[in-house]
Amino acid sequence: MPAASSREHSASAGRLGSGPAPGPHDAEVLMRVQGLSLHAGGRELQRDLSFDVRAGEVLAICGASGCGKSTLLRHMIGLQTPQTGRVTWVAGGEPRDVHGDDPPRREIGVAFQAGALWSSMTVGENVMLPLELYADLDEAQREQQARFKLALAGLPDPATFDAEPASLSGGMRKRAAIARALVLDPPLLCLDEPSAGLDPLTSARLDDLLLRLKHEVGTAIVLVTHELDSLFAVADRLLFLDVDAGTATALGPPAELRDHGPAAVREFLTRGRPPAAHPSEETA
Ligand SMILES: Nc1ncnc2c1ncn2[C@@H]1O[C@H](COP(=O)(O)OP(=O)(O)O)[C@@H](O)[C@H]1O
Ligand SMILES: [Mg+2]
């Protein structure tokens, strides 16, 4: 896929709407990123990022360590303001700048690497917190909603609600953080390396949860991940941030990019072992 593919894809997505009924891959656009550059410590990490996040899709953000994936997520949720470019929430009504006066706080659920649970609160209190801030519910309704989201995230044991975060396993804490991110029923969930530090089985179960959210709840997920298994299992599209080029060099379905993407992307998606171009020659 050519280097300009990210722009081509987002441009074509922008024209959708007048054609036939949307399928899973040409759905409504939730968020539009346009001409975004990322800076950290006075250095430009990435420039000219343009892509859409579509309703119900899992969009994986990949690239070498330090290329700017977490920085991109922080810009997408409005935690960091761009020097160049913009991020716009375009679903449901007037477009809203993520960094403007009326940011889409309720529309985006976030579970970050470091942004784990508050250790001073129980799991249930953690999950209810966004409801206290943004929803008009009484205590009993908040608890009911929080327990429902914990069960949805794979923590159905009623005792978990009153547990201290420190008493949970790493995988359970990730699930609780995802329950908290889901408690306001956001159409978009942003996850930064959710399987970091988890064993392969726990990590695979987390993939199952993401697939359930996508298929049963219809939540779109932006997922930063290094895990190839996870990527191929759950991602509809992959955005590759190239650390050397300083911009996105590919956007498309992971399997397509593994077979036909730019060299750096193929290498990333095959752990540096792309299939031999002529396997028959090797065995001859
Ligand atoms: N607040 C900051 N000040 C200075 N440098 C930063 C800051 N945040 C991130 N960086 C640097 O920016 C680069 C990209 O960081 P990050 O977005 O976390 O990358 P990734 O998530 O892709 O590993 C890294 O080299 C990191 O050290
Ligand atoms: Mg990161």
From TrEMBL:
InterPro entries: AAA+_ATPase, ABC_transporter-like_ATP-bd, ABC_transporter-like_CS, P-loop_NTPase. Keywords: ATP-binding, Cell membrane, Membrane, Nucleotide-binding, Transport. Residues 1-26 are annotated as: Disordered. PANTHER family: PROTEIN TRIGALACTOSYLDIACYLGLYCEROL 3, CHLOROPLASTIC (PTHR43023:SF3). GO terms for molecular function: ATP binding. It comes from the Bacteria. This is ABC transporter ATP-binding protein. SMART domains: AAA. Residues 1-10 have a biased composition (Basic and acidic residues). Residues 31-268 form the ABC transporter domain.
